[in-house]
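Open question from group meeting: does this chain pack into something compact, or does most of it stay loose? Before anyone orders reagents, we agreed to write out a predicted structure and look at it together. Recording both the input and the output here so the notebook holds the full record.
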Amino acid sequence: MTSTPAVPPIPSITLNDGVRIPQLGFGVWQVPDAEAVPAVRTAIEAGYRSIDTAEIYENEKGTGQAIAESGVARDELFVTTKLWNSGTVDWSGQQGRDRVLRTFDESLGRLGLDRLDLYLIHWPRPMHGDVFLNIWRAFEQLHAEGRVRAIGVSNFRVPDLRALLAEAEVKPALNQIELHPYFPQAELRALHAEHGIATEAWSPLGQGKDLLAEPALLAVAAKHGRTAAQVVLRWHLQSGVIAIPKSVTPARIRENLDVTGFELDAEDLAAIDGIATGRRIGPDPADFDWN
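Structure tokens returned:
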């Protein structure tokens, strides 16, 4: 087995069901399947132990191949994928629940795994009512059977979470949402804290160069001898947020992991908080739908 590289230890967070997840993981959104193999392999070699993919990314097979070839023991890795609850499928009733179970099996098959660490509902799709409640009951079954260690949601807003919490037997362990210094999601994070739900940030670096060119971030980066990306990821960690940055560039993959050797002070945090715009970069879950 491959040993863990000599990198600074990444902190972990204990989810509300007792499962521990590394606070910094590796995302593979928009990474083609063939490119996922070297990217995930490089990430694991660098020291990442949490890998985040999704059915709709169409790279579960490449991700699973890299995991199998890594030589790292399965128990050392935390693997997440997501259910693409497409509008072309009726997710209501027993037929919908059966579809969830089949889709889970298909994802496991592509990943080459016999269990999953975290399974997420990808979008709430509130314009279709509370269909996600039916999906959640199938998730609870998978959790009860021990086929997935933790279950959660992605892109759920405050009203979506309240509706789910009112009916769920198992609280979601985590909500994966758009979150970065431009869009810090204070109200949603407060609800998470109230109910013991972990916050995980997708696009933690803001999906582009605009955020990383912010003068305030560059000033903090210069102060610590770090890059703007490292400062943003450090901000996530100190905020108690789980972050899953994506890159296919080996040097950047390693750079994004090296964020534990410095500390942002109160002045730094205030400067970062000051660049918030409250505007999303990605789609709004209130009206995001597809066919």
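Observations to bring back to the group:
DSSP finds eleven helices and ten strands in the chain.
The longest strand covers residues 148-154.
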